Queue: 2 jobs
Job 1
Amino acid sequence: MIAQSAMQQLEQALGKEKLVSAKEDLLVLGYDSTPGLHATPDLVVYPTSTEDVVKVVEVARDYRIPLTPRGSATGLSGGSIPINGGIVICLNRMNRILEIDEENLTATCEPGVVTLDLFNAVAEKGLFYPPDPGSQKISTLAGNVMEDAGGLRGLKYGVTRDYVMALTCVLADGSVIATGGKSVKDVAGYAFKDLLVGSEGTLGIITEITVKLIPPPQTKQTFLAYFDNIRTAGEAVSKIIAAKIIPSTMEIMDKATINCVEDYVGIGLPRQMAALLLIEVDGHPAVVAEEAEALKTILQQVGAAQVQQAKDAQDAMKLAEARRTALSALARVSPTTLLEDATVPRSKLADTFTLIEQLTEKYQLTVGTFGHAGDGNLHPTVLCDERNEDEMKRAHAFYDELYEQVLAWGGTVSGEHGIGIAKKGYLARQIGPGGVAVMRRIKSAFDPQGIMNPGKIFVSEQE
Amino acid sequence: MSNQQPLGNFTHQDAPAYEDVLQCMRCGFCLPTCPTFALTGRERSSPRGRVALARAVAEGKLDFNQAMKDEAFFCLDCRACTTACPSGVKAGEVMEVCRAQAHQQLPAPKWQGSLRNLVLKKMVPNPDLMETSMLPARLYQKLGIQWLVRNSKILKLGPTWIDKAEGMLPQLHRPLRPQLPDLSPAKGEKRGTVAFFLGCVMTLLYPEVSRQTVKVLNHQGFDVITPKEQKCCGAPHLTEGDRETTREIAALNLDLFLDLEVDAIVTDCAGCGAALKEYEEILAEREDHERLHRFQQKIKDISEFLCEQGIRTEGLKPVDKSVTYHEPCHLCHAQGISKQPRELIKAIPGVEFREMKEASWCCGSAATFSLKFTQESQQILDRKLENVKKTGAEILVTGNPGCHLQLAWGLQQAQMPQPVLHITELLGLATPD
């Protein structure tokens, strides 16, 4: 519950039209795309400027009200779910692209700009913003920054972090910091910007973002390689990397995923294949031609059942679009879809696939696996029904065992979705008590009262 | 979509199935396609939010309250979210069912209810009554009263929807249903026989358009049978949440058309086509599955049908115009018919086709939405008109009478020069008499 006087102050500061507290609104502003998680905020605010955000934070600070930032709520670890109630601060009305600076190759945006809108706006000026998370059509830039979102182009172009140049951020005490800038080099003091990227809203609320842009690749070629055995696909990935070819995209889908995607998009994917790799090489035409040849040779050597080349750009786009639907297409099959984000060193990919197959068998589950093979980042997805308690228990046991081995191989419990609520336990296993303790100290330096997105990433001392 | 046990706070009759709402994984892919979310930015006015509300009702966490009712009717039912949803959630259909719930759980004041029953249960199912009811409107235009009313601006004094409704009225002609012969014979080499499903709005407001449909079908080599006993397709009842009357009408149409020896049942109204194709689901619990499926397989939108058969272009006159195309929601999203109309347009000699941006974005007509929510409808329409303008095309083509009314009215208000033509009117221009 929010004190009456706090409500009055917020109303005065922002105006009534920026506050929402009807039950029906609150009910639909406490979820994201993480299955099974839902909470109800006490109030939702829609700021339209940094000043608005400051005013909200000041009231939250004075009354110790939990604050949870939210963009489009497409997250996959529960980052924007207000588990302690309080205020959800919805940033999607701050959605202007403020500047595209063609001299410095940067773009400056408000936090609620939709990722694909930015991509399109800079593309019109002949520039390229590479990070492309699966939800790019609706995900917001600040959400991408806070979760350090990846995407299909991560292998060659990196993830959101690699493009953030400057951030403006409102801290828990109501102060505003600007960190970073348009300078390509910047070693002035602690790199707050880098600390804020991926902090999942626990250290502050971003109100302005400057990202780096690059020239787009001149050309690209897209291949589909099919395999009779998913292990072979894993080996192909390692071999390609070992041959010093860095494709811009190297995505994998297993048989279950191929079939679900084909059910949805119907573009003629062969349903009997155990796995497919979608591979894209891009850059200078001469280099692309050379890499494409080398790629074909490697794929033949490892024993791909079939290799297909996209006819044209449209054909290539269709394939990439099909891959983008993987998660949701799997979701058609069952009422509940549990998605994980296990990431391993690439040399361990083939072993990981074998392990997933074994565990699927052991726990008697239906699992579809897809992901960014080139990054070693897999999304083993359990298709289940939340009403079936026993099945849910088996699903969790499946992930527990999987993560234990992933960590033993030097992998990570999250490649790109973040820890949020869903994976706090796994993170503690990965970084140990010492790691959690340091994170807590950083958190309390920024947010001594613990009002910024409480309950996320690690178990707090109060819990 | 009905259950034996009431589901949460839904009543037993015409409730969504729990699976239909549980299926949403909240990925948000629907959000950028939803016109009402684009307008308001409010999650509850998005497909994901609406399904979440329905789920809350199903789980007993929310009463079926005014907000739920508001969202059910504020939804355009444009089905753009159905196209975008990879998980197969049909938010539009869930909202349609919620409209039926609204009438059970939150009935309108008595006079509104009686008027609604009169229109939906007595008038619309009866073509004779509907045709007679149009007589005053035709006289209104013929006797010059319309000129008087429009020039005196008297309607500006009443609610905005009356003014808009009057302004939307096209030049009226005699209804087509009684005029069409039972059989219009094919010209040239005969390719088959089709039954013509003549929508209410088409026969009453656009009789001359449907006349072109018959002309084109004949010229393309098809006998056209028009059974006079046909009823309304039932779409208005679905939209307003009166599913029972839909089932009654649907059963009559089903019997009538299945008795005919025809290759296809063709309609030139996207709304009718979508509803007729849904009979299989609507009547699932009452009728033999094989019959329903056979009926469903025969229903064809005119564009769909002509493309399947292949259009005969010999003898077509050139139409030297630039043309752009607005996709009716009930054609592209509800029936998945998107390529076919474009192929037909491009097949006409002389036509220069210009694709518009966001061609499949709703025009804001959406059955009675354009009259119930005049302001929101206008905003959606403005976005459409802007995209039409950018093409610089001379003609705007579409394939549904609701869109036709809305677009023609909007273009006129915005003083834009393009006429709106139904796709068969454009084909009709190319077809010799």
Job 2
Amino acid sequence: MNSKERIQATLSHREPDQVPVDFGGTAVTGMHVSTVAAMRDHYGLEKRPVKVHEPYQMLGLLEGDLLDAMGIDVVGVSPRKTMFGFPNDRWKPWNFRGLDVLVSEEFRIAEEANGDVLIYPEGDLTAPPSGRMPAGSQFFDTIVRQPPLDDDRLDPQDNLEEFGLIGDEDLEYLVSSMCEAASTGRAVAASFGGTAFGDIALVPAPNLKAPKGIRDVAEWYVSTRSRRDYIHRVFESQCEFALANLARIHRRIGDSADAVFVCGTDFGTQTSAFCSVPAFRELWFPYYKRVNDWIHAHTGWKTFKHSCGSVARFFPSFIEAGFDIINPVQCSAAGMDPAQLKREYGSRLVFWGGGVDTQKTLPFGTPAEVREQVLRRCEIFAPGGGFVFNSIHNLQAGTPVGNIVAMIDAVHEFNGAGRA
Amino acid sequence: MPDLDNAKLREAVLGGDWKTAAAVTKAAIAEGVEPLAIVTGCLVPAMDEVGRLFECEEYFVPEMLLSARAMKASMDILRPLLAAAGTEPVGRVAIGTVKGDLHDIGKNLVGAMLEGGGFEVIDLGADVSAERFIEAITKSNANLVALSALLTVTMPAMKTIIEALRNAGVREKVKVMVGGAPVTQQYADSIGADGYGESAGAAVALARRLVAA
């Protein structure tokens, strides 16, 4: 099997010849730019600065030589504009705390006296900054810019500024990116944007210069309980745009995407959930179902749902809403035992992740512990297909290279030892 | 005997109705109810119930935030009156997310639950240096320090802060409690913290134990 066939088999719950591997296919299965650079060094690849293709989390682009070296089966396609509203083009060098990287020409920042780095929406230094990277951190967090709220004057349109019909330039970018991705022979994971419905990372709208509406994180969470009519009206309009955009995109790219990243809205915490199952079904479920139903009725794409945390309670609803793939499968959260998840949901959900714990084992364990856990997870998740190997969320800065190597080697060991 | 509409204030806190919580509190004060009686007789048990509902997953983050908002609306009225009367809180907690970590929802929930539990909360915010915790201990007489981290990359700052407290000679003045997604009891023990709370509700019980010890 080639990479595409391998992914297609596993997404159809048929056991492929090997466990397929993703790193870098989406913004939640990626690698911090420092780890990409470290892995390039490990494999002795050509020394060149890595592109920061997702500046919010400072994810590095995995190019073909590294994909080959790591044995990765997936390439990603992303929207033209980043989380901060500027396009990824005209790369320029930047020294990121001692590491030479490449960033977009419109990646415009200011450094504060304490070492914090501020980033600006659309690269506009005259606008208030929309992201901050503290001196001790390795990626940005959004700066909440919440205008005063007056419940009597709340207008759902204010929370819809960032949504709309896809423009020609953005569409052409997706089409050309898709062609390029398809030509690699690898499977394609595509992210089009606009279908998350309340992803808390996007609520503050770091791409907008002057966001209006409900933009504060806590205020948004509160609103999912106290202002449900408002949220419904936002989601309703967002859904209309999304369906129109999906149709337009599909007309141009056809079924060349294997998996489509629909939603990164987190519903789980480490020990519990952000809402009850009935609240999920009342507020989010109808919109996810409409999006997924449209995709399944009109395309061959498989739909990808990301949610961190303890979310097994939502799996029946995710399945009913039409999600095919769940990520990151945070086995370290409460009620997320891998064997139980595989047993109960393995025939209906593809587990794209769950391969190794990134809260403890990968950053703080030994290579032997990493190998042991990866082998065990593969034994649990691989039988019968329905498993794409990925760590639980992005590989973070500071992860020991020896542990990343141990992780990748263990997957290949499993594939070599377990398959003819 | 002045009258406090206990059931109404409790209902307002549990239902997250901050306007009613403020109105009932004002009415009670006008009636001559002792501010401390409102705190101990109503707000503390109401927030304990919020914590219980959160633990048993009848309440989730939105409900907890709403209840905290209602409790704070009442406390905003009561706090200056309590201070004027020289009422001592159960304890003084300096709370913050550690250096490099801007994720403060968990910290805010813990802070609200501690305030609702009768503690004075000195909220140092997010991305807080060891020096600011030391300052809160020396200038505000905090006897508890609560450290929060969401990220594996920032969690080690908890150890740095505890070491800094020791080096500044204030470690023995305070109990240190830690929490956050990647934090475990084992990690708390390894860095010499006095306690670990798995959730916002557990944090209040832990804080009460630590100040009583």
